[in-house]
Amino acid sequence: MARDSVLTRVATGAAVGGAIGGAVGAVYGTYDAIRYKVPGALKIRHIGQTTLGSAAVFSLFLAAGSLIRSH
């Protein structure tokens, strides 16, 4: 059985991290926007920024964890 390459494992970790981080960021961003009563169209911007920021950070950490575990 062929083993996955390190690059494939890191890319998979980053993709899974981005998906999970995006989902958590969207939920938290929505909660945060409602909690602080963000007005009108700024809610969309706030939720989007929270979603992308959370996805990027979680993706980075999961990719790094996958890199460490693949060695």
TrEMBL record:
Keywords: Membrane, Transmembrane, Transmembrane helix. The chain crosses the membrane at residues 6-29, 50-68. One of its GO terms (cellular component) is TIM23 mitochondrial import inner membrane translocase complex. GO terms for biological process: protein import into mitochondrial matrix; protein insertion into mitochondrial inner membrane. This is Reactive oxygen species modulator. It comes from Arachis hypogaea (Peanut).
